[in-house]
Amino acid sequence: MVIPFLWKKVNNMTDFQPIKTLVRQYHKDFDESLNSQQSTAKDIIYIAKQFTIPDWHWRGMHPFYEQIGAENIITHFWLPLKQAFTALHRREDIFFAGANDVDKGASHWVCSMGHFAGLFDAPWLGIAPTGKLTYLRYAEFYRIEGEKIAETVLFCDILSVMHQAKQYPLAPMTGAAIIQPGPRTHDGLQYASQPPQEAQTTLDLVNLLIADLDSLNKSGNDSPPPEFLQRVWHDNITWYGPIGIGATTTIPRYQQQHQYPFRNNLIDKTYHGHIARFAEGHYCGFFGWPNLYNRNKGGFLGLPANDMLAEMRVVDIYRREGDKFAENWVFMDILHYLAIQGLDVLARQKDLQTVPFT
User: When comparing pLDDT for 351 and 270, which is higher?
Assistant: First the structure.
């Protein structure tokens, strides 16, 4: 049941509690319907329609891409996922809301991050099932318009499912392949109101980071010293990269295991911007569609050199501690990035024999 609400202003700032309440109720009703053995496709679509506008705009990763309307979204993404994973459920680690810095606060967004988990009992996207508990890492963004969800962006780490199922298709990772935890401080679920000044501090810091990285791209310096990142990152930051790259910790090890391989194997790196970027309390997040363009000169993700100006769609979620970022969760549509360079990992996977677990 949708909870009606009215916008309220508190100290000249928008009170984001109503939109958080809306998304939490949507999660409760939709997830219960999705997990129920008795729910039909019609039931799940009905629930989704109660919380969304008729032309609900949904962006997903390769091979789902953009869908419009509850029926298309449920049919293309959620039903195949439900059919593949028994007892599918959401394990949320981070939840916050805010005004979009990209459009000067005109739009309001909610972010949810964590894992979907369930028993991988049937094939999904050509990936053979294991019958075992499997985690699908996700980051989801919702734009609220009036009293409904108008837009959703869902990044999920499909490669992580392939890795857990021992069907990983790419070159060895430079970082660690792990089931990624939530914040060390265990305070990522920002269900209560947060001081507006904390959000502004967090947003100012992420904007400094973005400006620094943009200037680095323009400079052509692909091997910056640790001091470059120390302006905005704690020395012992933990960086949770997508499967394909992996996770790491400390600035020197991050540079060794991700930044230098990334920067030295890619050229013509151009920042394209974000669709949404917002903060609440010590947490912030952003995504682009795409965020940046680059060319692979050979080596990154094991790809040979090519002339394709390829786009990267990326999510970053940060936790600030004091005046620096202490943790960073990154999602990247690696499968799309590979597909536009001629390597469709999932199409190749479907050519393999898909057998049920024994």
Answer: 270
HEC per residue, the chain? CCCCCCCCEECCEECCHHHHHHHHHHHHHHHHHHHCCCCCHHHHHHHHHHHEEEEEEEEECCCCCEEECHHHHHHHHHHHHHHHEEEEEEEEEEEEEEECCCCCCCCEEEEEEEEEEEEECCCECCECCCCCEEEEEEEEEEEEECCEEEEEEEEECHHHHHHHCCCCCCCCCCCECCCCCCCCCCCCECCCCCCHHHHHHHHHHHHHHHHHHHHHHHHCCCCCCHHHHHCCEEEEEEEECCCCCCEEECHHHHHHHHHHHHHHHEEEEEECCCCEEEEECCEEEEECCCCEEEEECCCHHHCCCCCCCEEECEEEEEEEECCEEEEEEEEECHHHHHHCCCCCHHHHHHHCCCCCCC
Could you read off the pLDDT of 322-333 as tens digits, one per residue?
A: 999 999 999 999
Strand partners, 198: none
Indicate whether 66 pLDDT > 60: yes
- Residue 351: pLDDT band by 50, 70, 90 thresholds? confident
Per-residue pLDDT tens for 108-132? 999 999 999 999 999 999 999 999 9
Which residue is associated with the tokens 């903060």? 279
